[in-house]
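Protein modeling request. Please complete all fields; requests missing the sequence field cannot be processed.
Requester role: graduate student
Desired output: 3D structure, token encoding
Chains: 1
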Amino acid sequence: MAIREDVIVIGGGLAGSMAALEAADGDASVRLITHKKSTLRHASGLIDVLGYLDEEEPVADPFAAISELPDDHPYSIAGEAAIRDGLARFDEAVGDTYLGSHTDSNALLPTFGGAVKPTARYPAAAAAGLASDSRDMLIVGFEELTEYNAGMLADHLDAADVPFDVEGVELNFPGEYAHDSRVTRFAKRLDINEDVDHDGQTMGARQALADAVAPHVGDAERVGFPAFLGDDHTADVRADLERELGVDVFEIPMGPPSFPGMRLADQLKDALDDAGVHISAGNPVINYEADGDEIEAVIVDSKGREVPYHAEEFILATGGLVGKGIDSDRDGTVEEPIFDCHIPHSDDRYDWFDEEAFGNQPFAHFGVRIDEGMRPLDADGEPEFANLRAAGGVVGGTDPVTEKSQSGISLTTAAVAGQRARERAAKREVSQ
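Delivered output (432 residues):
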């Protein structure tokens, strides 16, 4: 039996998930096709709209700064209303597990490298760590985590002139572990509150951790841990630690595997299920069928068998260079591998890089260019296809890493792509 939907979304990351949720907000049947695990598992879990322009100082209000962006920036093309729509859709999907929707202003949160990062939405588990909070802070690190050093983090925060005293302490995580134990092992132990041996006694892992930290709290009124305080029961873990320590407890986003990112991926999966989105996972989209400027189907490689998935509208949300939604080679070619959408770039690879390591890197801008309906444009500035839209990292035209805008761009382009796809699919159904 042929597979047919109103809207097909290709890519299961933040942009793909949000585009599917937007498209499904009505009577449209929506299918999300994803090949690999979501890149959210490597992300901080923070939702950044716009953290920096050209200045070293962070942007206080992203919406007040949008007018300073160039005309070809995705935000300028989509418009402020679309940014707000994307955030609203995100807020609806995650509920009270995220904070920040009460204000347009960025919050400032510490990261595991000791930086203070401006962000628009942040997990409730990180809330007590706001850098604008004047309460003294203790940062806890663990000898088993070589990539995270509490003392260095505290020193960096202190150097950033935060309005509080901050100390760092390195401890051994309670219990015994193999030398190759990963952070997921620590999170699981806290999640199930597994019994461990600590100071000659057997006790739950949460109690043991609190006992190890308590002598170092001093005058601190809040304590920050690496973001692995459980997975399915993180709120319970934090509540138990807060009760035992008598202070607020918060998580500090860290490198992969990122529990805040994985938790967000799980929440979006639940939201997609609730919205009735069909999910096809594990098989890649390798080609497409078209009639003139209309795509009729995408071709999915199902264990060596080419299967067409038909739809009225298609949304490309496969990511950028990191997510392999854009490919490049040593011959100077940069391409979008499914629909061969135009990617503006120099044929000389040496033009892709700035000599300054922290300069304006041309490769960071690689991606499809879009019109107001999020349709990818060809070299002449015309839509590649009438019924193809793009969202997220595959959209170029700016450096989202430097701007701290990637997740905001994902939400914004996904909101417009999903809305337009849903509306156009509905009109075509009526006309038929």
